[in-house]
């Protein structure tokens, strides 16, 4: 899974005017879930299901 930072850099994730993370493709605000297999939390798009891990 790619990191949120990498997603932002590759423009797969954008930020809205309130600095909230959005899926660049769907324009959906990313939701958060905790994944016991990953350190930190997972940000995902409820529309297309893409996921990015958020460390810290
Ligand atoms: Zn999406």
TrEMBL record:
It holds the Pfam family HVO_0758. This is Small CPxCG-related zinc finger protein. It comes from Salinirubellus salinus.
